[in-house]
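Protocol check, entry for the methods section draft. Step 1: assemble the input record (protein sequence plus ligand SMILES). Step 2: submit for complex structure prediction. Step 3: store the structure tokens unaltered in the notebook. Ligand used here: magnesium ion. Step 1 record:
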Amino acid sequence: MIVTYSIYIVDDEQSVREGLAMSLEEDYQVKAFSTGEETIDAVKTNPPDLILLDIGLPGMNGIEVLKKIKGICPDVLVIMITAYEDINTVVSAMKLGAYDYIMKPLQMEGLEATIRNALETIRLRKEIQFLQEKYLTENFPCFIGESNAIQDVMELVGMVAKSPNTPILILGETGTGKELIARAIHLKSPNFKGPLVTVNCAAIPRDLIESELFGYEKGAFSGAKESGKKGLIEEAVNGTLFLDEVGDLSLEAQAKLLRFLEEGEFYRIGGIKKLNVKTRVVSATNKDLDSLMEEGLFRKDLYFRLGVVKVQVPSLNKRQDCIIPLSKHFLFEFSRKFNKKFTGISLKAKDALKSHNWTGNVRELKNIIERGVLTSKGPELTIEDLGIEAVGRSPASEQIGVKTKFPPIPRGGIDIRSVQESLEKYYIEEALKMTGGNETKAAKLLKINHHTFRYHRKRLRTK
Ligand SMILES: Nc1ncnc2c1ncn2[C@@H]1O[C@H](COP(=O)(O)OP(=O)(O)OP(=O)(O)O)[C@@H](O)[C@H]1O
Ligand SMILES: [Mg+2]
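Step 3, stored output:
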């Protein structure tokens, strides 16, 4: 494909305009203007690739025109044309984002080389953009977002991803897609060529988190590697550091992280050399940081540093329009994976999906569809396959919650998934006891189908 670059020439001297236009017309699309005002109007409607801009224009001078152009279209490259005596102004122009400058009287040889360099820069930029888009479409896991609530979130994410250093804090209930959004931020940002380093702050033992994040020098502590070790922050240089479950960081690690965010510098444990690493910090948590801050378990100053931009991911219950598209997406994904031939979801099953109380959000929906696909033949996914009821929001919690008083959450938090599992296990065992071990009857008592019952029984290794 032959790409023709477009160049604007802006000079009040007719001879300069005509001379330049004549020598460039053969290879490029050229337009000439004698004033800044005309040029700005043209940039607004039809921005070129490159502008050769005289500094000493009458009326609005070249520097002001440059400022306006960069405000309208920051990607346009601008080469300033100047007389010798304007050298101080050239410096200001370069600071304002001019690509280069050429001196009057113009010498064609030098001018051609400068233009060639500028156009090569443009070509490379376009290539990078093309490759980034290609990479994105090939690598980004499908993100389903049909409801206005999630589309607003993705719009914000698309905007903030572009500024490569802004820290972003993603908040939302478990299973709402925070990790997927963190990956989207990385892939959509200029840092996408760098690494995405994910740190699960809850999974690393508290006494190791500092050395994992900041690294250590040899002999820093007993058990340290001979050679010392790079920390995850260093690994994330020029990329994205994703601090998942950031609400689980110890107060000591929080203090160190805060220092790094404030100063951009840190020391490895046992190190004397200050390290300076550029990386974007994205963090996420499903914890209620407000309560943690009230209890003194999460630093307020760190909260503000991490959450320069806050992204609140809505729960699935608030994203009604997403439920069926997500279900279909997972149905086809698992159908393919398990070599089944599902063609769709029955009306009753759709109603049940829409009215279910999704406390585990998208993760819960994904698991239910996976189990449905695994445990039945199809071709339609039915309400029995889902093992949920079309009975409106929160039937279970209402049935239990009214009568039962649950113990309070301990200071160190609670693993909700294991609580949920124990509860499921308890009721499966109770149902078996009540029905003398008859699985079909036990499943009925728990209002799930036989397949689902057996699936849970196996998963939870019940008696
Ligand atoms: N919009 C979406 N489109 C497709 N898949 C999604 C979407 N949102 C979430 N998922 C899938 O749901 C599952 C849970 O998402 P994810 O791990 O990002 O949740 P999370 O908010 O990080 O949860 P937690 O707080 O428990 O860590 C993943 O398998 C993810 O791929
Ligand atoms: Mg997560």
